Amino acid sequence: MTRTRLTAAERGEEVLEAAVLAFGASGYAGTKTDEIARLAGVSQPYVIRLFGTKQQLFLATVQRVCNRIEQAFRDAADQQADLASLGQAYSALMTERELLVVLLHGFAASGEPAIGDVVRERFGGIYRLVRELTGASAEDARTFSHQLILELLYPLQSIRKIEIGHHAPFCRHMRRASAPLPSIIHISAESLPFIPLPVPYLARGL
Q1: Per-residue pLDDT tens digits for 138-163
Q2: Which of 2, 86, 97, 127 is the most exposed place for a label (fewest CB within 10 A)?
Q3: Does residue 1 belong to any structural domain of this protein?
Q4: What Cα–Cα distance (Å) separates residue 35 from each residue in 21, 47, 74, 106, 194?
Q5: What is the mean pLDDT of residues 32-36?
Q6: What are the residues facing 186 on neighbouring strands?
Q7: 74 lies in a domain?
C-alpha cells in the first residue's frame, strides 16, 4: 500500500501535537527536541528545520494552546455570550490536561524574556477577547482571568509547592499523585500576565 506523503505543514502539526505532550510532561527546560521528534515519528534535524530552535518550538506550542482556548471561547460565545458559557468551555478543555499544563509551564519559563513576552501578550489577548465576546466589565474580566489560572493549577495533583516571586511559598497537599510533573514550580512575579493577580487571592484559591 502506498503511503500518503505529508506536507511540511501537516508534519508541523504532528510535531506540535507531540510537543504538547512532551512539554506538558517535562516542561520547557526538561524537554529535548529529540524526544519530541521521536513522538512525532520524524528526525530531530527535521524538527529543527521546521521550527529553528527548542525555544521557537515551545513558543509555537504555547501559541497553539492559546489559540485553542480562544477558539473554544468564540465557539461558546456563539451559543451564549456570557462568562458562564466561556467558563464551561474552559472546563471542557481541562479534560485535555497536557494542553493546559503547557500554559503553566509557559508561566514558569517566562523568566526568559522571549517566552515571557509571548505568554503575557497571549494571556492578555485572552483577557481582551473575554471582554469583547461577553461585554464584561474590566473588573469582572480580571476576576474571570484569575479564575482561569486557579482552574489551571487545581488539577495538577503532583505539585506540592508553588512559589510566586519573592513571596513566601505556599503548599497544597493532594490526596494522590498524578502524571509526571515537577513537585515545585517557581513563577516569578514578573513572568505573570499583566493582569494583576494578588498572591493572597491565589493562595486562598488553593
Answers
A1: 999 988 988 887 777 655 544 444 44
A2: 2
A3: no
A4: 10, 10, 33, 19, 33
A5: 94
A6: 163
A7: yes
